[in-house]
Amino acid sequence: MAEGPALSPAPVSIPDLGTAPGRQILRWAAFVLLFIALDRLSFVDDLLGISVTPWSPKTGLAVAFLLIRGAAQWPVVALASVLADLLIRDMPLGASIPSAVSYALVFALAAGAFRRIRGASPQLERPRDLALFMVVAALAVVPATIFRIVFVTDQLHMEAGWFVQILTRRVVGDLAGIALFAPLFVRWAAHGWRIRRPSRERAGQFALAAVVNWVVFGLESTDELRFFYVLFPPVIWVALRGGLFPTLLLLAMTQLCIIAATTLRDLPELTVTALQLLMLTLAVTGILMAATADMRQRAERALRDRWNELSRLSRVHATSEIAAGLAHELKQPLAAILNFLAAGRRLLDQSPPAAAEAADNVRLAEAQVLRADEIVRRIRDFVRKGEARRQPVELARCIHEAQALVQPLAERHRVRIGFDEGAPLPRILADEIQTLQILVNLMSNAIQAIAEAAPAVRRIDLAARVLAGGREIELAVSDSGPGLSAAIVEQIFQPFVTGRPDGIGIGLSISRAMAEAQGGALWHDPPEPGKGATFRLTLPIVPTGAHDRQA
Amino acid sequence: MTDKPDLWIVDDDQAVTQSLCALLNSHGYRTQGFASARAFLDFIAPDRPGILVSDITMPGMSGIELRHALLEMGVDVPVVFITGYADLGLAIQALRAGAADFIEKPFTDAVLLASLERVAGQAAPAADRSRLAGIRARFETLTEREREVMSLVAAGLSTKDVAQRLGISPRTVDIHRAHLAEKMRAASLAELVRQAVLLGL
Which is the CATH superfamily of the domain at A390-550? Predict the structure, then answer.
């Protein structure tokens, strides 16, 4: 890209079609053609060679082009403008060339200035960027229009009132065009036209907007100016719920309705200008609101990603606590496999070879390979990445998996884990991995508490009961350890509080947050001297109706 | 066949017991498997010749507790411990409890067979004495620093702890460890610990 260093200080991170000269020329040609097409499309009214259109999407395109490709590409904009004047308005080159050059230069300066603002991103997605961009655009539109009027008309014959009227209409039209179309074209360059199938809500929003537009602009009986405010609710709705892109589309639709109304219904001059001003207000309100909503959504998504990552890291940490046990667990089948294979080899080496017995040993080895694989699967499932998703989960299976994960650690410290299932357990509505994580945390904490205190009885008891109302199940994890000390009991669920020298103290705080995220709770019974700790976890049961449907 | 001792295998993991029996049977040993230390104690009687191959970490009675219980009963069978925990502390405990050998799971048959043969041969005290003399002779060739490192490592200290104790860098400790293991002809850490135990370090 041939960019002037002075005007475009920073490269924009927008997918490049390629740097080959052929691509470059293709891109220029596409821009020029689109510019001319948009000019023709919006060419409604011509006053002394000044197309006093109620909107100007071509200026939006030109500004987006200069913003993305760099201000140094202003000659392409000038060329497009000259060609458009020639083809559409049959304007002599003597008038159109100075007009086009001034037009291109002013907007190139504006684009370059915008990109020099510290922290301003040409992606035009954040509210601050959009607001700054609109201010810069407004500052540029006035001189650009004055140059246009000066070069194209015989200004000597122009009255002051006339001048101001043309200036106002043209400025408002260009500004509306820039505010609306520049962000659209920037988005196009960055992401292409990816319009997803609209959700039911989005379809409803646009249907409502269409009705409102028809009431305001279609009906003779309603006054366009007095009823314009009715257009705000649908735009605000879309802005808050849908974000920037749908809002821009809706505003473009409204803009089209205004143009249709002004051309078909032949509205008076002053009404058109007033409508354009209202449209500009609507656009600025909608765009800034949508960008703010987008920003909030992005922040929420980032927060959710962090949370997922944190909970995964905490799982990895939990795994490292039970890792020694898991490694041991894995060594058992590996040792057995080696032994069976060595026995098989030995039996085959005999003369005559004891083939049948050797085959038995190979079969036994195979079974141990599957056993090892199951252990690896269990660990991998536990630490895998993924979005938390609540869905019906077999609680019994979850408890079984958690128990299997901590079993080696329990065996190492000779802790017995008892689980009296009693009645068949219901299905819970929860994220399986997170539930697993909570259970593993509680049990491995209990095992380590027992291991440190070394009491005579070494056991953990799990008990489940459905709470009154049948909507929740409570799981109690009790251990025969020393119980919680009074010093730590108040803050056990706070992050980075731990009773263990090697603990990092996030297990319980994350467990509680995860329990609450699933609509459940996690707490512990008040400590009693001489008794171990009891933690209680509640989780929502899948409603019976949903249960039937799912089955 | 008759010159081979009987082998008793104690492991709470059924697959391990079964596979060890299969392997050792194929090498002509007579074997018997037990699922727990308790089951073995019920079976064993004094004066039965044989070698015990036992897991250490088991629910209920551990392998080391089993060894002590046997001694109390007056049963002095040689014990080869096998364990999945690569834990130096455990190795030292086992060797101090008088283990004949300490093998880490998983192991190849060659390692186990060599160990069993050596243990079977060790029954003759003279062989043991000459072996100790060899270890003493090799220990004499160590430098002062290497001896310090060896006794600390054998006491169960990690490289980092040894480094801290001696005020040298962990890398240096590793270098000393490699040198002294070579001089002592100890193929494994367990072997080194056993030598240290024999030397009374």
Answer: Histidine kinase-like ATPase, C-terminal domain (3.30.565.10)
Which residues of chain A make contact with B158, given a CB cutoff of 8 A? Answer: none
The reply to whether B162 touches chain A by the CB within 8 Å rule is no
> Cβ–Cβ of B84/A336 closer than 8 Å?
no
Q: Name the residue range of residue B15's domain.
A: 7-120
In a domain, residue B70? The reply is: yes
Report the distance separating Cα A444 and Cα A319, nearest Å: 10
Instruction: Look at A412 and B85 and tell me if their CB atoms are within 8 Å.
Output: yes
Structure token pair of residue A525: 């019974």
- End-to-end CA distance of chain A, in Å? 60
Q: Give yes or no: residues B96 and B185 share one domain.
A: no
Helix (H) or strand (E) holding A464: strand A459-466
Question: Model-level pTM?
Answer: 0.56
Q: What is the pLDDT of residues A123-146, one digit of tens each?
A: 888 888 899 999 999 999 999 888
pLDDT in tens, B102-112: 888 888 889 89
Do A182 and A134 meet the contact criterion of CB atoms below 8 Å apart?
no
C-alpha dihedral (B21, B22, B24, B30), degrees to nearest 10: 60
Residue of B nearest to A369 (CA): B15
CA dist., res. A78 & res. A89, Å (int): 16
A432 contacts A389 by C-beta, under 8 angstroms: no
Q: Quote the ipTM score.
A: 0.76
